[in-house]
Amino acid sequence: MPPHLQKEARLRALPSPPLSEARRSAKLAALHARLSLSPRLPVETLARCLVDGTADPNPDFSNTSLSTLGRDLYSYYTAEAILCRYPRLPTAVVFAAMNAYVGPNTLTQITKEWGVELVAEPGGEVDPGYLQCKREDSMLVRQRSKKKSSDSPVATLKESLPRIVGLNPPTPARQSWSRGVSSMTVQDDEFGGSTEGNGQSLKTAAAATTVEDACARFVQAVMGAVYLHRGKQAAKTFFKEHILSRHLDIGKMFEFKEPTRDLTRLCAREGLDSPVARILSETGRLSRHPVFIVGVFAGREKLGEGTGSSLNEARVRAAVGALKGWYLYSPLDAMVPSEAEGPHAKRWKPGLVDIGEVIC
Fold first, then answer.
1. Cα separations in angstroms, 273 against 47, 91, 299, 327, 353
2. Rounded Cα distance, 59 and 115, in Å
3. How much of the chain exceeds pLDDT 70, in percent?
């Protein structure tokens, strides 16, 4: 057999490309330069980040361990950034913001933005610059997506608060107790979703995975590789450039069921006067398109203002604006805990710890 055929046969017998092929991959070199990675992070490590645990069950050659480290780093940096910047956010909105920043959908989009392509079938003969994983059957993917959508917390107070106070029936696997704020924070994952059946063991990898999960583990593995090769400061810089720099309008994640009642209970808890709605101005009351501007006041202090085509609509919008103004409070000099770490760290300045959201 000719030498080139022998080499091809040896490569086809491997579950993933050997590390010796990483230096010869133009795609891998381009990805390394595109991400502005340091020369101290070798392309062999980047090639390992592109090998999912379903493609190569050996954890020494897959990204399983790196993705575990990267996921914890993403969760830590994102949580401290959200909680320190918006200390009064409700728990459901915090989970939704976490999912929007480092959730599987976002990390999949980042993978596409980085120009990474998926291989049709993993193997040793594949270019190391492709993301390699064994894909699940499309029917199983649709069934799992339906289950996740029905079990994951919704990013609105309207639908998530009943879940938080335990009004909905527990899942069959958790009949002995209901899911509350404590269980979602301690027992569930960083997005407030169930952890049953999630994750891969370092010793036993799943037989197949979805494209979304494979892309998420790749982006997490790159974060873990940057942390191991360049240190904590480089990892945080990488996080700010690729994750925290993305614009997220947290105000659009709110959807109150009864904002006037919530505002009344919030004012009572904070020792303020009961909120009163007053008309500030109006125009076209007898026309087809009237406009009313209503303000909500607690004593002499205006809490919020809203505009609507009816008095009730303007009053509700004013209450929503007042609640958002409370929950979206952001300190001017907020400091995250990771800034107080390291030899050149800043002096720690404690932030605001809020009493929590109003649960009716």
1. 62, 26, 6, 19, 23
2. 25
3. 78
